[in-house]
Amino acid sequence: MALIYTCENQVIEMALEKLKDDGLVSRDAYFNHDAPQNLRREVTYRDFDFLSRLSKTANVETIRSALAWLKQKGIVPQDATCDERAFDELRREVKAKFTIPGTSVTPVMERLLYMLSSAKRPRRMIGLGTYCGNALVWIVGPSCGRGRVYEAEKVYGIDIDADATERARENMGQLAHTDHIDLIAEDGLRAVERLAGPFDYVYLDVEGKDLGKGLYLELLKRLYGKIEKGGWVLAHDIVVPPFAKEFDEYLRYVRNKENFGESILFDVDAFGLELSVK
Ligand SMILES: C[S@@+](CC[C@H](N)C(=O)[O-])C[C@H]1O[C@@H](n2cnc3c(N)ncnc32)[C@H](O)[C@@H]1O
């Protein structure tokens, strides 16, 4: 069974107050804290899309509490940090300079990805499904840009779409300290066989023509031997209802203790992220 991180009750209440003050939800709106954890993201709240509002409203507090939770569970060291000022500066630069035709990466997910990389400080990363770089930038954020907080060795960003990869190169090329990032237009299935490991950080956000989200598991199985012990695998979109069937087998694989020591679902927005620790 996976560990599940959901927004703390006090963070939800605080966000709800902010939304009421801003007139975005009615004064008598409430959140049903008594619903079982794994159903809280279903409609336990009367507003039609509370999670998407929450992901924009309380993301600083959510991510602070997620970092504290990871320390408490012993997943990250007690002295792990996330530089919020560096994140804010990077975010301002990305929003001003990047061209992104569309993305499902929400504000809280941007911050979660950045925080996880800050806490882990990976050296050798591979992202599959780079598209125009709008998820990759938060993953490599702590090791690039003017406010980088550490130096990483290598980052590969792979996408089968050559135009999107070119856009990702243009986007990422506008940031400082990106020499360690290699953006490659290639089928991920080939790239994971060709590229030499080891990797200590893997990010999955592909959607294959034939396999759909089933491609995550195919890629992960091919990469598994190249992932260091203690390495992290992040899978985006994991709670999106139409993908549930395609992710079934993936989740069984990463939640099997023989494959990964721990697997954690971050149920912080309408897309979700599964972090699996080898
Ligand atoms: C949902 S998008 C990724 C979104 C992106 N992570 C973002 O920043 O918002 C899925 C991507 O998977 C890519 N893709 C599909 N099949 C692939 C494959 N076999 N190898 C590599 N990339 C693939 C697509 O070209 C597309 O850019």
Name given to the CATH homologous superfamily: Vaccinia Virus protein VP39
The ligands bound in this entry are: S-adenosylmethionine
Strand residue content: 15-25%
Largest sheet: 8 strands, mixed
CATH topology (level 3) name: Rossmann fold
- Terminus-to-terminus distance: 15 Å
State the name of the first-level CATH class. Answer: Alpha Beta
Q: Kindly state the mean pLDDT as a whole number?
A: 89
Number of spatially distinct domains: 1
Q: In DSSP terms, counting alpha (H) and pi (I) runs of 4 or more, how many helices? A: 10
Q: What is the level-2 CATH architecture name?
A: 3-Layer(aba) Sandwich
SSE string, helices as H and strands as E? EHHHHHEHEHEHEHEHEE
Q: Helices and strands: which structural class?
A: alpha/beta
What shape does the CA trace take?
globular
Please give the order of strands in the largest beta sheet: 1-7-8-6-5-2-3-4
Specify the helix fraction band: 25-40%
